[in-house]
């Protein structure tokens, strides 16, 4: 225990967030990824500046929670690819749930509901 009452095993690391055991929270990896962009474990490790094994644990945790998709293109000898799904929206007017699949600075956010056509606030 430190002077301020915090547990020493709960120190923040270079990413600034922990999950209680000194490792970054898996959402740090999710926030570093762009929607619909495929990433290998090595690429995510590089983005977060963490060891590859830690990146794999974070991605596995996100996969268990259905926060990322996991693909194995071309069989077992190819590296696993991780994909953050497109953001989902719910129209406040008609309740329609939908995802915006266009990842473009202008089109990456829902402006209008595709069902009722009303502006999303």
TrEMBL record:
Species assigned in the record:
Halospeciosus flavus
Q: Where is the composition biased (Acidic residues)?
A: 7-24
Annotated region (Disordered) at 1-29
Q: Which domain of life is it from?
A: Archaea
The uppermost taxa in this organism's lineage are: Archaea, Methanobacteriati, Methanobacteriota, Stenosarchaea group, Halobacteria
Give the protein name, as stated in the record: Transcriptional regulator
